[in-house]
Design goal:
Layout: H1 3-17, H2 22-33, H3 43-56, E1 60-64, H4 70-78, E2 84-89, H5 92-104, E3 111-115, H6 118-128, E4 133-138, H7 145-154, E5 156-165, H8 181-195, E6 199-206, E7 213-220
Parallel strand pairs: 1-2, 1-4, 2-3, 4-5
Antiparallel strand pairs: 5-7, 6-7
Helix pairs in contact: 2-5, 3-4, 6-7, 7-8
């Protein structure tokens, strides 16, 4: 199958399985108009995150990498009543767009956007006693994926779910000698997930509107 076929299948799945959602469409448009990179999760992937939050019965969700708030809104829709999403974004301009999008979606009271490098905010969350989080979604700079997974482990509890996006990178993760920091960081996350006895984990390859990629899925053991 070609990349065009992958896109067509994604479009078909959206048409068959997902209802039209003006709010989410406006979120994507506003992000694009603000000049943010078009690297959001796809609608089926967003719905997947929402369903994971529902399946877990999540009341506390941590997202590392907000961008324009598209995945944030999906996660907020999946949490239990009284729940909250804490989302970390390094770029103030992106956070401003995300705040407007989250407000338009009616999720402002459910979402706490923290603006700073995530590796500064994560220790602060630990010091605040902000966890444990039921679900962590890691989708930020890939060079630090291993570091983010480490902190996710510190901020979760047995039964918590951790998802790390973009871990296949068009197959580049096979290159153990890669000089690409994103590849190296992704391999570090995969190797940590596979070696840390606190995690039960797998990874799935995906194709679709975002090309050939995949995600890492972990459950914290009891």
């Amino acid at each position: 199958m070609t990349d065009n076929s992958w896109n067509d299948v994604d479009a078909y799945l959206c048409n068959v399985l997902l209802e039209e959602d003006d709010t989410l469409s406006q979120t994507l448009r506003a992000s694009t108009q603000a000049g943010l990179p078009e690297i959001n999760v796809t609608p089926p992937q967003g719905k997947f995150l929402m369903l994971l939050a529902q399946i877990r019965g999540a009341t506390a969700v941590l997202e590392i990498g907000t961008l324009g708030g598209y995945s944030t809104i999906w996660l907020a829709r999946g949490i239990q009543p009284g729940g909250r999403v804490v989302t970390l974004e390094v770029e103030p301009a992106s956070a401003e767009v995300a705040r407007a999008n989250v407000e338009r979606a009616g999720c402002s009271e459910l979402v706490d956007i923290r603006v700073a490098p995530a590796l500064e905010t994560l220790p602060q969350l630990a010091a605040e006693g902000a966890g444990p989080f039921d679900l962590v979604f890691i989708d930020a700079d890939k060079a630090n994926s291993g570091n983010y997974l480490h902190w996710a482990l510190e901020l979760t509890r047995p039964g918590s779910v951790i998802v790390c996006d973009n871990v296949i990178r068009h197959g580049q993760i096979l290159d153990a000698e890669s000089a690409d920091e994103d590849v190296r960081g992704t391999r570090a996350a995969l190797e940590l997930a596979g070696s840390d006895g606190r995690l039960d984990t797998t990874a799935l390859q995906t194709v679709g509107a975002k090309g050939w990629d995949g995600f890492l899925l972990c459950v914290v053991k009891g």
